[in-house]
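Section 5.1 Outputs to date
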Amino acid sequence: MSTRYGQLAFGPGAVRRQEEVGSFVAYGAKLGSPDAGPDALEPQVQSMIRESWHFFLGSTTPSGWPYIQHRGGPQGFVHVLDERTLGFADVAGNRQFVTTGNVESDDRVALFFIDYVRKRRAKIYGRARVVEKADDPELLARLASVGEATLGKPERSFLVAVEAVDLNCPRHIEPLWPKASIDRMRELYQRDVEEAQAEAEQLRRRVAELEAQLRERSAS
């Protein structure tokens, strides 16, 4: 856990409970360290984000209530623009604009990524900014492009300046695989089965040929 993350996440209540159970040395003690400024996304975290097909985005309503939203798309729909900046396209949805409105009044957000296959998760604090399509159409076109595909009906861009990052423990994560991964594994398995069946058929034919030759020799 980075110093920056602890400084943003741990309030007096969290520190008190850490002291009570003896975990303050591992966590809360970081509060006394100098502020090193925003964290950078390490290569491991960057790779995890690029491979993610969904994440959860937390923001705060003007009334002070937390709001969390699920965001999903093909792997790569969240772009790592540099080691301290993330971006993604905001596509047409239910037209409530809760997250968009929240960010416009309070830019602080939390992103939660989870990798079910490798049982790992990343928590990211950041400051989000909404960029309308009319203000930067090239940026939106870039964020809406995922490989050779384009996300449907992109309306605006979201940019997140990373403040702090924490990689959490793998406990209580049940391994899950995306359907596309399972389909690929099924295709590979089916191909192996077909190749094995073809090889077995060739062996059966060869055995039949040898048996026929033996019968001919025995008859002569």
